Amino acid sequence: MREGMFNPIILASRYTTMLMEMDNKELERQLLASRDAGTGGYYATGQHSSTSGFSEDDYMPSAPSSGDVSFAPDGARIPNTGECKKLMQRIEQTIYQEIVEGFETFATWCHIIEPLEQTALHTHVLPGDRLPQLSWVYYVRTRPNCGNLNFQTTVHDRMIFMEEEAVEGKLVIFPSWMPHATGKNMSGETRISISGNSIGEFKDPKQLYNLIGITG
To answer: How far is the C-alpha of 87 from the C-alpha of 101, rounded, in Å?
Structure first.
């Protein structure tokens, strides 16, 4: 470290990009069709964890899969066909090219948030889980005031708070351990997003990718 140089104490970032090539109307149609078909939400191999404590639901066993569908909590199935499959491939490509090689998404789910609903503060890891993981969210349908993505953590008695605007077509990738929530949907219309968790063998001897907090 060079004398007189500023260096960060906390290494954690979020990566954002717009996926302009996606057909969000078709994604919306496929996701709503899955919901209307009565395919309830189940855990895959990932988890949602409340920051205020854990219940048996945090350890729900995996649901059976037919091979063409991903199961996950709090939403509808994500069909592995059509525009949904294209989106998953595009996200995998983005993580590989822009963040870290060798990571694969192992759990996906859909959030269909109605007016006045919101998502409480949570993380995507369980206590003691030290495997390097990334989480992501892609916005399929948004309207003004539909509820932004809020990152929140505490260092000693200092609250660190960052907000990411919910915009249709935006992909946000962040460390799975980072507590986050969404604001209340005050738009009067439905907000739709797809989320996922990715994991892989992490090799980074120079700690370059730790800027996004993968190993934090």
So the answer is: 18
